[in-house]
Each structure stands twice: as C-alpha cells, then as structure tokens.
What does this fold into?
Amino acid sequence: LETEALLRKAIKKNEFVLLYQPQIDAVTKEIFGVEALIRWHREGHGIIPPNDFIPLAEESGLIVPIGKWVFEEAVRAINFWKDAGISPLPVSINLSIRQFYQAELVQMITSILTEANIDPALITIEITESIAMDATSALPILKELKALGLTISIDDFGTGYSSLSYLKKFPIDYLKIDQSFVRDMTTNKDDRDIIESIILLGHRLNKVLIAEGVETREHVDVLGQLGCDMFQGYHFSKPISKNAIIDYYTTFN
Ligand code: G
Ligand code: G
Ligand code: MN
Ligand code: NA
It folds into this structure.
C-alpha cells in the first residue's frame, strides 16, 4: 500500500518519463520506428525501472492512468518529431493485460489520437503471448484497434505459455524475437535454429520480424542473413529521450 500511495503521488507530480529505443530497418539501416519504455524518476531515489513498479501498477489498477499518460506522452513525441521536420516515426507501446480489462481502452486511445490529429498507423500495440492467450478479453479489443488502423505486435515471442493457434485468430502484424534467443545465437546452435524457424514461420504468415537485444555486429550479420526485417538493441541505441531521437535520426538517416 505504501508503494501504491507513492505511485499515485508520482502520477500527480508527473514523475514518469518515456524513453524511446530506435528500431532499425535491416535493409536500409535507417531508423524505422521506436519502442516507448517508461521510467519513474522518483524524487530522492533516482530512476526506477519498469520491472520495479509496473507489476504493482497492474495489481493496484494504477496501470490504467499510467497507461493513459503513456499514450498521451507518446502522441506528444510524435508531434514533437513532426514539428522538428523528421519523417513520421511509428511508436510501439507496451500494454498490460489489466489495460484490456478497462472498459474504455479503445475509447481512450481513439480520443487521444483524434485530439492530437495522429494517424493511427503510427501507433503499434505490443502485447505478450499471455495476453493473446486470454482471447475472451483481448481479441475483440485488438480487432477494434486493428480496424482503427493501429498495428499489433507480439512481444517476447516464443517465451510465453501459449499455443501457436493465436497466430491465426489474432490480427497480428509484427513478431518480436525475444532477446533471450538473440543473446546466445552466435554460440548456441539451438538458439540460432529457433530464430531461423521463427523467421520462416513469421514470413510464411506475412508477419514482420523484429529482433530484440541486438547487441553486436555479429548479431546484426547473422540476423540479416536469416532474413530478419528489423533490429532493436544496444548495438544501435539504448532507450533515449525524444530530443535524442532527433539527434539519432539526423545522424543516421
Ligand atoms: O525498459 P525495460 O527493458 O527495463 O522494460 C522492462 C519491461 O517493462 C518490459 O517488459 C516492458 O514491456 C515493460 N514496460 C516498459 N514500458 C512500459 C509501459 O509503458 N507500459 C507497460 N505496461 N509496460 C512497460
Ligand atoms: O519486454 P520488452 O521487450 O518490452 O522490454 C525490452 C527491455 O529490454 C527494455 O527494458 C530495454 O531497456 C531492454 N533492452 C533493449 N535493448 C537491449 C539490449 O540490446 N540488450 C539488453 N540486455 N536489454 C535490452
Ligand atoms: Mn516491448
Ligand atoms: Na521483449
């Protein structure tokens, strides 16, 4: 309850910060889009990573107002980049299952996009396989979001307790290859074979493949040979501020 009160205060005091990690096109090597990743700048305690407060935000339901703030801030960033004169950058936003239980998720997203005059195609929703397995609550909402023009992405692909059947039920555009497979892919043949198989499966189903945790030049080379479409990881950039995204863009595009 203590931390819950602190989270409430953090919302009021506007202590959350959104960082953006570049996603790189494997062919052009240009920035294609970004993933939004939240941080809590807690007074007197420095920067708190999401794994240390998102679970509590989910339990307490505070993920709903925090999630709303994430959308508002992401949309401000899109317009900020637009004003800076760089070509539109799609933003991927992580959604917790708890956010699918809120009645007005679609309404909330629609009104934020309409008010800011943002093309829905610039927003990608990232969900995990466990959310996809909760088909009764997630599927109708994802279909609505897809119909609005948003892009749907499966995060941490291949690591959840799930069956592959959701791949045909859900309107999925992107698969994100989990960083646990990428980490050892150059030393562990099983990991490399799993990645190769995910890419074959994904492409056969017309999905765009994004590799996470791309840390080395060797990762880039092997993933490129395997046909991966996009890269995200420290080899290119850590998550950075919306100002720094402009510097990144002007340096590399
Ligand atoms: O940035 P970092 O790698 O520390 O993120 C850790 C986890 O926190 C990731 O699994 C990510 O999905 C989650 N996360 C980051 N930002 C958000 C957010 O805005 N909303 C939700 N629900 N989860 C987030
Ligand atoms: O679970 P999700 O994929 O949403 O979270 C991604 C997490 O991975 C974020 O916390 C982000 O900071 C982190 N991350 C991003 N790139 C790399 C990387 O190249 N290596 C490692 N170890 N972590 C990364
Ligand atoms: Mn993610
Ligand atoms: Na991931």
User: Anything to note?
Assistant: Residues 130 and 161 are 7 Å apart (CA to CA). Strands lie at 16-25, 31-42, 46-48, 91-94, 123-128, 151-157, 174-177, 208-211, 230-231. The chain has one domain: 2-252.
